[in-house]
């Protein structure tokens, strides 16, 4: 287990599709542990492997009391037409925050640690975080979908009584 350095937002790995996981061995478990350590250290709500320089479709989403969701080769198979706008940030783009419209319900498939296929449905904040992380695995940053950038001053005003929200990076 180790905290890994976050790579720069301009790094090519954050701007192209990364590779499918094909080896479901101890190195995958180690990667998941490193991602978890790095996500907590950076105070993030999600993290994707390319953010620590790893060329694989692996990501995590912190679902708080529901635990940590492991995404391995995730593919979103359905996006609800209903969307919601909320503020996002990104561990790879410190100090950039902005409004992004995301589907409020998604269906996705992927694999578990052993490579077995899994399917799930996610809603609201978890669906948003999954969409943000899956985008990372396909080389897309939230700033490409941002409707409006929010200044740090504006953000602090909005969440002056809710400090945690300011660090909602993923
Ligand atoms: Zn991000």
UniProtKB/TrEMBL annotation:
<dbReference type="GO" id="GO:0042586">
    <property type="term" value="F:peptide deformylase activity"/>
</dbReference>
<dbReference type="InterPro" id="IPR036821">
    <property type="entry name" value="Peptide_deformylase_sf"/>
</dbReference>
<comment type="function">
    <text>Removes the formyl group from the N-terminal Met of newly synthesized proteins. Requires at least a dipeptide for an efficient rate of reaction. N-terminal L-methionine is a prerequisite for activity but the enzyme has broad specificity at other positions.</text>
</comment>
<keyword id="KW-0408">Iron</keyword>
<feature type="active site">
    <location>
        <position position="133"/>
    </location>
</feature>
<keyword id="KW-0648">Protein biosynthesis</keyword>
<keyword id="KW-0479">Metal-binding</keyword>
<feature type="binding site">
    <location>
        <position position="90"/>
    </location>
    <ligand>
        <name>Fe cation</name>
    </ligand>
</feature>
<comment type="similarity">
    <text>Belongs to the polypeptide deformylase family.</text>
</comment>
<feature type="binding site">
    <location>
        <position position="132"/>
    </location>
    <ligand>
        <name>Fe cation</name>
    </ligand>
</feature>
<keyword id="KW-0378">Hydrolase</keyword>
<protein>
    <recommendedName>
        <fullName>Peptide deformylase</fullName>
        <ecNumber>3.5.1.88</ecNumber>
    </recommendedName>
</protein>
<feature type="binding site">
    <location>
        <position position="136"/>
    </location>
    <ligand>
        <name>Fe cation</name>
    </ligand>
</feature>
<dbReference type="GO" id="GO:0006412">
    <property type="term" value="P:translation"/>
</dbReference>
<dbReference type="InterPro" id="IPR023635">
    <property type="entry name" value="Peptide_deformylase"/>
</dbReference>
<dbReference type="GO" id="GO:0046872">
    <property type="term" value="F:metal ion binding"/>
</dbReference>
<dbReference type="Pfam" id="PF01327">
    <property type="entry name" value="Pep_deformylase"/>
</dbReference>
């Amino acid at each position: 287990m180790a905290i890994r350095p976050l790579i720069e937002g301009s790094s090519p790995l954050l701007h192209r599709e990364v590779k499918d996981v094909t080896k479901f061995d101890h190195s995958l478990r180690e990667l998941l542990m490193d991602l978890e350590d790095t996500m907590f250290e950076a105070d993030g709500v999600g993290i994707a492997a390319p953010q620590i320089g790893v060329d694989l479709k692996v990501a995590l989403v912190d679902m708080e009391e529901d635990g940590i969701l492991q995404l391995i080769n995730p593919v979103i198979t359905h996006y609800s037409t209903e969307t919601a706008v909320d503020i996002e940030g990104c561990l790879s783009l410190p100090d950039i925050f902005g409004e992004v419209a995301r589907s409020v319900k998604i269906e996705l498939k992927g694999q578990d640690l052993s490579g077995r296929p899994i399917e799930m449905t996610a809603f609201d904040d978890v669906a948003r975080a999954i969409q943000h992380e899956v985008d990372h695995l396909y080389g897309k940053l939230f700033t490409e979908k941002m409707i409006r950038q929010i200044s740090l001053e504006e953000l602090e005003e909005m969440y002056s009584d809710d400090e945690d929200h300011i660090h909602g990076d993923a």
